[in-house]
Design goal:
Blueprint lengths: L9 E2 L3 E4 L6 H9 L1 H6 L8 H18 L3 E7 L5 E11 L4 E8 L8 H15 L5 E7 L3 H9 L3 E12 L2 E10 L15
Parallel strand pairs: 5-6
Antiparallel strand pairs: 1-2, 2-3, 3-4, 4-5, 6-8, 7-8
Helix pairs in contact: 1-3
The structure holds coenzyme A.
């Protein structure tokens, strides 16, 4: 049996992070079809309702069960409406290192949701799962994602040349990482409220 993250629900000041369900299919289709999401993430194009159904009901759960990571549907609370997807992948259980990724629904951007969700997952990972390192790889041109990493307390460590693939071609990836105690829960320096 592979090591895995347990099925988990987390809460932060404004957000609930919970497992995906069929309720999230329309929100996933909208989020993954959006122009900015499609620019930076190598998702199916077009991203159909079938793609969203498979993600919400099969793939997100299978990835957790395989030990690769864990994927959270993010909503406001008490609302059930999906505002983001944040997930961990490429988990290395020997070095206790994993990599975070995310997208935010087009209508919910610019309000600090990604940074809040990253901080909450990092806090859980370091305090409750005893992880030692969290990484993020963002395309060099993806200013919003790089800003999220900084706001979440991550440190830029270098540039991985031609390491990413987008629909537009190969891109350099900026590597960010944080270690235990380097993120500050609730330290929402960049949030506009
Ligand atoms: C990247 C993304 C997740 C950010 O989500 P978000 O909840 O809007 O992020 P936040 O509100 O926490 O912060 C966004 C920051 O980027 C800045 N930003 C947004 N768009 C920008 C742009 N086009 N150019 C420069 N900065 C930009 C915002 O001003 C904000 O910084 P500030 O708080 O200092 O003003 C969202 O834009 C998205 O889903 N993009 C498409 C998918 C994607 O790129 N995923 C990441 C792959 S590594």
């Amino acid at each position: 049996m592979p090591e895995t993250f347990p099925e988990t629900t987390l809460r932060s000041e404004r957000l609930t992070l919970r497992p995906f369900s069929a309720l999230d299919i329309p929100g996933v289709q909208v989020g993954c079809s959006d122009t900015a999401t499609q620019r930076w993430l190598p998702l199916a194009r077009p991203y159909t309702r079938d793609n969203a159904t498979t993600w919400c009901t099969v793939t997100a759960h299978a990835l957790r069960e395989s030990g690769d990571g864990i994927h959270f549907a993010v909503t406001g609370h008490p609302s059930a409406r999906l505002v983001a997807n944040v997930g961990l992948r490429h988990t290395d259980w020997d070095t206790l290192t994993t990599e975070i990724g995310y997208w935010v629904s087009p209508g919910a951007r610019g309000d600090g949701i990604a940074a809040e969700a990253v901080r909450r997952v990092a806090e859980w990972l370091f305090t409750e799962r005893s992880f030692e390192r969290l990484e993020l790889r963002a395309a060099e041109g993806n200013t919003a994602s790089r800003r999220v990493a900084v706001k979440a307390g991550m440190t830029q460590e270098g540039v991985l040349r031609s390491a990413g693939v987008t629909h537009g071609g190969r891109v350099n990836l900026v590597l960010f990482a944080c270690l235990p105690d380097e993120t500050v829960p609730g330290d929402d320096v960049g949030r506009r409220m």
